[in-house]
Amino acid sequence: MFRLRNSLLRNKYSYSSNILKRTFFNIPTGNGSNNLRPVYNRFDGSHQQGNGDGANFTQLLFDPSSRKYLAIIFGGGGLFYVTHLDEAPVSHRKRFIWLPRILELKIGEYTYNRVLQETGQSLLPANHPLTLKVERIFRRLVDAAISDPQNANVRDLIKDVNWKIHIVNDPRMPPNAFVLPGGKVFVFSSILGICQNDNGLATVLSHEFAHQLARHTAENLSKLPVYTLMGLTLYSITGSSYFNRLILDAAIRMPASRQMETEADYIGLMIMSRACFDPRESVNLWKRMENFEKTQMKGGMPLEFLSTHPSSDRRMENMKEWLPKAISIYEQSDCNAFRNVLTRGGFPTLFV
Questions:
Q1: Which of 1, 90, 166, 304: disulfide with 178, CB 3.0–4.6 Å?
Q2: What is the pTM of this model?
């Protein structure tokens, strides 16, 4: 999600209000990494959060009679991992995804209904000028992604997606935007002032669109069993749930989240360039984001290594590094054809 460094994609699966906390850049939200952890209730009424079965796992790990079973489990797990490696479009990064597409869409549908319950009174009508403007920009991004000859699989990924644009006009909400699995797009009007122009808005929308193209929702959920196993293994060594969470967050979870955010930045930049939006504006957008963080985030920003998102300064530097390739794509794209299509209103019906 386009966020104030602590994204919706970070805790996207806590649903409801936590979804609305996910932003395009980082907003300090406290110890959000605990939101998904189960609580193990004890018979005496007390409870322990996190990896409550660590002692049993330790016995299993060091019991000689169980080692052959562990070898089978880990061997089978390794084979399962290798056979479920998937390649992301545009960036071509290999990642582990086992979650079926149909389940990913079900999660998106459930989340969509929950978000509608919370934002329904603040949504602008479908024929509102702002809604139509965002829809036009998003159409160009979708069309550009589909027409990319070097990523033919994109068409298969999104051919059946039912795209729908929602503008949340609520000044109480922080600047935000996200796209759910299944193609439901939410843009908060509070982010439009930071975008300032169509190229800035395209930077935000292409980033969120890229999350769905790369199936980051499915990738995130596919990692949860792996994180659980890592937590149990660490608990067998340290005996400390708190220390385990700190290690996993700093060394595994947060870097993985930042990697996906960086990948979405890259994919989005290439798509917006192909769609004839000026990629140079992406640098300006992140400068405005950085200024917003400094003036509005009075509590201060989290250290990057404990954040789900790269810092705005780092993202700005990344954009500068990628600009030569993006500008090349921008200059090679048939932008006159795009303008003609916009003038004639000749885009295919991608939205409802």
A1: 1
A2: 0.77
